[in-house]
Write a structure and sequence with these properties.
The protein is of the alpha/beta class. Helix content is about 35%, strand content about 20%. It is built from 15 helices and 17 strands. α3 (about 60-70) links the parallel β2 and β3 (about 75-80). Bound molecules: nicotinamide-adenine-dinucleotide.
């Protein structure tokens, strides 16, 4: 990538690749293409679409149900997880939910298409699915997206899409190929599919509060689950079962959870990303070794080239003040985004329909695929992951880190080869000012 001041990465990379494809040049990035392209992979309105799920936890199970509810002709065809108990639990839960909605016939996962193991993605893809839902820990996402694109299937990818910069560069390359192949890439950055958020962000982009000077994003919440280590678990199994607490798997909480807040800032800024960040963070409450080596709080300042500042706070500590919201300050007013409210030069409150953003993602994705259109969320799903990883790098190192440095970072957290009996990557808890930026 050439040196640049105004990230993100997507269009630059896309344009380089698109030179090879005149058709690809006419696809607007980040949105549904209204064009029906030669070679675009799609299915007619009445034909079944086979859906595969990889990562059968809470979010994967939810995404599978939403995929099936999006269209009666969608069938769940194959599922995979690192662990067989997660596969059978998810299939049982989904069957019950679908039966309850009179949609049980859409569950077409036979025993032969229930796969366990770290290589389950290969077998789910080989089973002949049209669409894959990726909801395992994010450290595996670059490898999974590469494989799905190679196989030519549409992708729903939960956020974040990598935990390190080398992984993000792999996702960028794979998504450029997906664009040329006509594959949809829908991101689990679900705020962008919330009707109220769409309405308020549109107004902010249209200047409802004048020039945006600053944004404050809070994801201040409580502690998450911990699975007590069982005597039979290897170190690898323990890390996979408790993936939130291992940076190579989750990206740390700034990437795993707070990415939503950061993505919202970037969206308000019309997908122009900050040029640098510095950050304060550490672990005060989750200090036990069971919690791996992630932090439990970050306070990060992002700076944009035009002078806009984003103040971002995330915390996972019980017994503390909680707030998940975004506050936007402009020259002529302000907005509280989660209240869908604007005050100042103009006053406005969203009064449109309420809807389920998780369901909307799947409704829009399957409608596009069936209409021979494509949705491509790759630019913001990659750049917002980069924004989160940039913040983490700044916090762990204690340095002021530029976007360019972060994007070019060679720090690879996820090993190239992994097996259940591998020794998992371990690292020391980062100490700002001591841990080196790499
Ligand atoms: N968009 C949202 O609002 C939202 C909400 C929650 C979670 N998420 C994201 O969804 C993903 C999953 O989160 P979750 O809450 O469902 O976690 P979870 O722990 O409930 O589920 C993850 C599953 O992945 C499995 N797994 C681990 N390694 C695997 C591999 N190599 N291949 C296949 N499966 C593997 C685990 O065994 C587990 O069953 C994460 O990326 C998370 O950030 C998004």
């Amino acid at each position: 990538m050439t040196k640049h001041d105004s990230p993100g990465i997507g269009r630059r990379s896309f344009l380089a690749n698109a030179a090879a494809s005149a058709a690809a040049l006419s696809i607007p990035a980040g949105s549904v293409s209204a064009l029906s392209l030669a070679g675009l992979v799609h299915q007619g309105a009445g034909e079944p679409l086979k859906v595969g799920l990889v990562g059968c936890g809470g979010r994967g199970t939810g995404a599978a149900r939403q995929a099936l509810m999006a269209n009666e002709q969608n069938v769940l065809w194959a599922v995979g997880d690192a662990f067989s108990d997660r596969v059978s639990d998810a299939v049982g839960e989904l069957q019950e939910a679908l039966d309850g909605s009179q949609r049980g016939a859409q569950m077409q996962v036979s025993k032969e298409r229930m796969f366990a193991g770290l290589d389950c993605i290969d077998r789910v893809l080989d089973s002949g699915v049209d669409v894959i839902l990726l909801a395992s820990p994010p450290g595996f996402r670059p490898m999974q997206i590469e494989k799905a694109v190679k196989k030519g299937v549409h992708i729903f990818a939960e956020k974040p899409v990598a935990t390190d910069a080398p992984g993000l560069r792999r996702v960028r390359a794979a998504c450029d190929e997906a664009r040329i192949k006509g594959l949809s890439i829908v991101s689990g950055l679900c705020y962008r599919y919330h009707h109220g958020r769409r309405a308020v962000v549109q107004r902010l982009q249209d200047g409802a509060i004048g020039e945006i000077l600053a944004m404050q994003g809070n994801y201040l919440t409580g502690e998450l689950w911990l699975k007590p280590r069982q005597p039979s678990w290897t170190d690898m199994e323990n890390q996979l079962r408790n993936w939130l607490y291992h940076t190579w798997l989750s990206g740390d909480l700034i990437a795993e959870q707070h990415i939503h807040t950061l993505d919202l800032m970037a969206w308000i800024k019309q997908d122009v990303y900050p040029t640098r960040a510095y950050s304060l963070g550490g672990r005060q409450k989750r200090t036990d070794a069971d919690y791996g080596y992630v932090y439990d709080h970050f306070a990060t300042v992002y700076e944009w080239k035009d002078g806009t500042r984003g103040f971002s706070y995330c915390r996972q500590q019980n017994g503390c003040f909680r707030d998940v919201d975004e506050y936007v300050m402009g020259t002529q007013g302000q907005s509280r985004v989660f209240q869908h409210a604007i005050s100042g030069k103009t006053s406005w409150n969203y009064d449109g329909p309420q809807s389920d953003m998780y369901q909307n993602e799947h409704d829009e994705m399957f409608a596009a695929i069936r209409a021979g259109k494509r949705i491509d969320n790759s630019d913001y799903m990659i750049n917002s992951t980069m924004m989160a990883v940039l913040g983490r790098m700044a916090a762990y190192s204690g340095k002021d880190v530029t976007w360019q440095e972060a994007w070019e970072s060679k720090e690879q957290l996820v090993p190239d080869v992994l097996a259940m009996d591998s020794v998992p990557p371990t690292d020391a808890i980062a100490i700002p000012g001591v841990t080196r930026f790499r």
